């Protein structure tokens, strides 16, 4: 050890120490979960600063999440014994590149105050471009193009870099042109998308020698955590920055590569030794995190993968509970059971902060959230929204709220143009104005507008047909179950189609969340009951600062650890996911297995795997098959338990016979009403009485669409209209006026839009 080595280095094991002390030259730390890679990387960062080998601002340190960056900053401060001033280059690839790009934006034709656009804006831009090119957006959806462009950017490809195959991937050879046009348009808006942050910086480093040299000089040391999940553009960017000094230390685990769907290339690990010859390869084998059974279960499972470098893991710890595998009857029982287990842990004095439920897909959180709220168990959803707060769930709920309660302006405003119907801000402004003037709810006001010339013909047709839909759905809501109603609404509103056209990685998850919503609704007889339940659930934020259980996806849990980990839903089609099974390839299955490895290795003391014998999908009970990953666990280290009488063998027989244990439940559901409701014309003549459960607010009780207060403006009056100018009232019906305008001719307008001239 060098003389200035701090005492805390003694806490590290020899290979960790080596990774810290080999400050010069390339270092590749390749090791399994929980072996102290992140700990060693953090110690290295502290060591470099503490020994004055570099100022904090001279170190580039990349973490996988912003949270990990914050934790690392905090830990370095602890090790050094004082808060570290300024580590500007500690963060995720995106945050670091965003900061760099501000300084060099002009090189790629941007100003330093450029905006970073989100997916919505990205799609809007692409749609315009597609229309400009007279391409059929139905045939060549903007989302498809967006997905392609993201992938190209992940691979570091500019429009000019695309080969013929890539070019063919969109609109018969228009890929390159559209990508180019999109980049131009972004530039003219002084904007860039997420992928551009890296691609622009890579381009700058590639073309501007001085800039490259400046950063190569500045960054005396480069550190990268979770290296197995870097994609090509990130890799190329790193390689350029580190190529000069070659003081680059990357740490990773090929068994934990779980982001290939975002372009991550595990091959980057293998390439490292080629690009940085003479790299010191450090292998850590001692696991400090988990008990022997947990470690054995995880190692046994991942051994089933063929594509791996292979490594050994051992621990000094003894004993520890076996990994439990629990079979339950169905999803509600799964949530109940986990709740009970957690309450038991709590009684034993385990801190809730150290309990995590890791799910494969976001939709799985719903059942747990509902249950935990019921039993008053504090929880937090990390790396995502609570179920009922997710955008697609809020959209769906907004539709249902308008159906149940047409006065719900907030809900109406949320979905009047979602999916996009071409109703812009202008239309909304008109609706608001009219609603304000008449005291009508937005929905009713808009229906009235649709019957006037206040809006352009297209907007009028659109609104009329949307309101027609609402009336039909409202009629339906009296005859079909809430969950059937939801499915109809999603289909007929175009919401389903919107998600289908979306080929982004998230859209499938959104569709699954909506399926889960419909599943949740099956427990309620009326729409009102269900909406009431939701408002209670959404209101339950009271848990405050008390200790909370963490619910998150396995993907988001990477790098973290908890004393107690629950892994629900280990069934074929849930985990491994149906998508991975459908794709069928070995690669996707092996990625799922790596995810299982990541999940199990988050546990320090206890790991509990759960699978349910039945899942309910669209009102149908389907028997599920336990995940193949359960069979792959080494039998000596697991303890199987089933809560069902007759034991596992019985229900296994059950699922193979594929009988429907709850046939009577689905049979009891009312027939779907085939009758199509009346059109919006009927609404105008007969009214659209929402039949609210509670008394409507005063002034709003005239919320029926038929409400037509009489206008104060009499026939013959001279009036002024903002859009149509001066004119004379020639007819009047309720609050609608027929006016002969001097310039615009005869129009039907609503009285609140005119003033007496
Ligand atoms: P993952 O692959 O999951 O990211 P990792 O290899 O980064 O895991 P760390 O999170 O750094 O592992 O460490 C796992 C646990 O082991 C942490 O609680 C850490 O504090 C502890 N640990 C690491 N090194 C040592 C050590 N030398 N002695 C004792 N405990 C250690
Ligand atoms: Mg780590």
Automatic annotation (TrEMBL):
Record region (Disordered): 670-702
CDD domains in alphabetical order: DEXQc_UvrD, SF1_C_UvrD
Keyword tags: ATP-binding, DNA-binding, Helicase, Hydrolase, Isomerase, Nucleotide-binding
Catalytic activity annotation: ATP + H2O = ADP + phosphate + H(+); Couples ATP hydrolysis with the unwinding of duplex DNA by translocating in the 3'-5' direction
Pfam entry (one): UvrD_C
Its EC number(s): 5.6.2.4
Cellular component GO terms, alphabetical: cytosol; DNA helicase complex
Binding site for ATP: 31-38
Residues of the UvrD-like helicase ATP-binding domain: 10-291
Domain called UvrD-like helicase C-terminal: residue spans: 292-559
PROSITE patterns with a match to the protein in the record: UVRD_HELICASE_ATP_BIND, UVRD_HELICASE_CTER
GO biological process terms on file: recombinational repair; response to radiation
GO molecular function: 3'-5' DNA helicase activity; ATP binding; DNA binding; hydrolase activity
Function comment: Has both ATPase and helicase activities. Unwinds DNA duplexes with 3' to 5' polarity with respect to the bound strand and initiates unwinding most effectively when a single-stranded region is present. Involved in the post-incision events of nucleotide excision repair and methyl-directed mismatch repair.
Family: Belongs to the helicase family. UvrD subfamily.
Protein name (database record): DNA 3'-5' helicase
Taxonomic path: Bacteria, Pseudomonadati, Pseudomonadota, Alphaproteobacteria, Sphingomonadales
